[in-house]
Amino acid sequence: MSGAALRILLLSDVHANLEALDACLAVAPAYDLVVNLGDIVGYGASPNEVTDRSRDLGKVFVRGNHDKAATGLMDLEDFNVMAATAAIWTRNELTPENLDWLRALPHGPVSLPDFPQVQLVHGSPNDEDEYVVSLGDALAPLVTLTVSLTFFGHTHLQGGFFVNGSGADGFRPEYRTVGKAESVAFQLRTSARYLINPGSVGQPRDGDWRAAFALFDTDAQVVHFHRTPYNLKSAQDRMFEAKLPPRLATRLAAGR
After folding, report:
1. Whole-angstrom Cα distance, residue 110 to residue 122?
2. With contact defined as beta carbons under 8 Å apart, do 22 and 163 qualify?
3. Considering its fold, how many domains does the chain have in total?
4. What is the chain's mean pLDDT, rounded?
5. 1 pLDDT exceeds 70?
6. How far apart are CA 40 and CA 170, in angstroms?
7. Is residue 1 part of a domain?
8. d(CA 153, CA 12)
9. Which family does this protein fall into (predicted)?
10. Which CATH number does the domain housing residue 147 bear?
11. Domain presence at residue 169
């Protein structure tokens, strides 16, 4: 990969969870660039605070389906009742400036000019709203990709998929605890193509309640997956006070 060596902080699916975002930023290693893979808002009760913080952090973004839903860019028919309710609430809460900014977020894939072999998407490289959950989902884009590394979000599942000359497989970082801040390093190979999800900052769905993010070291070609606890009760209390669907708050504790 070309370009000067960078340490890129990868954030995705914050979903208006300010407490989770703050916790990730507090433990994140030193970084040179922040990229956001979408779904800045939706579900959570701090859409303006999280949007403001995201805008301050960096300039590289991809829009998510909840960003589109909250700004009127997509029909809510494909959303379940809880998600649609949260999208409408978010739309009414956003400041005009933040609403316009979210509405203008770019459609993926988005490239990094200094790293032509890296691209950023929310869902699949083939469809921004498509979920890449299984190896079967990943194979079609992996075998047709012209870049070696794609970072994606949307599924809220930390890990990814790869294909090389000997086959294809998926991977998930394995952590030692369920309540502490920790990280797992994943070494990339030059002979493989990857789809990698940094996990969800604000709404993990892999059974681990901790906020998730990743850091990519372009020089060492290593992705460091991270999990960190955050003030769960505060995030839940905000949601209860906002009268968002209670299930959106209670499920945070289970990471589902």
Report:
1. 10
2. no
3. 1
4. 95
5. no
6. 26
7. no
8. 6
9. Belongs to the metallophosphoesterase superfamily. YfcE family.
10. 3.60.21.10
11. yes
